[in-house]
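Protein modeling request. Please complete all fields; requests missing the sequence field cannot be processed.
Requester role: graduate student
Desired output: 3D structure, token encoding
Chains: 1
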Amino acid sequence: MSKPIIYGPSYSPYVRTARLALEEKGAAYELVPIDIISGAHKQPDVLARNPFGKLPALTHDGLTLYETSAITRYIDRTLPGPPLQPQSTREAARVDQVMSIVDSFTYPSVMGQLVWQRLIVPMLKGQPDEAVVAASLPQTRLCLSEFGRLLNGDTWFGGRSLSLADLHLAPLMAYLAMTPEGPSLLAAEPEVAGWWDRVSSRRSMTATQPQFA
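Delivered output (213 residues):
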């Protein structure tokens, strides 16, 4: 069996999620960086793997796959190592729900608005738009509140074992925690703050730190 190849920049939260799944499986893999800031994701070789021009993409044993949730489920089903999806149907439903909340509601407010204005715009020598930051906060608070409710005292979103839901959310929380608003937003949701302490200390998170240079 060949090594999986992940295509995309290490600073992309979705690329990091795919890498986290591989790291948690203990799988060797290759990361091929693609700089989306420079527009490299619109080049023909990238579009051949995903005609929508989004990242990550994965190639493995003749298979080409895109969409992060498809990639991480494939990794879990195909590679040996600890399972990342619960056997309990109720816990599996919670994992699926959290992954969907991340994609549909959390990413737009956290990454598309708050993190973009607070971290990316200054990196590009611009000034944050405070109106956009303010607009992001109600939705971000709602997402965090729901994550706390869904944890409901459990260690992980999959119950007692780490799951794909934890790996889909963790890269977003890493960027959220770097914003000026992040610490107080997390402090307002103790369940989520405790979860963040646990997941951020895992070896897989250390191994997949974003690189911007």
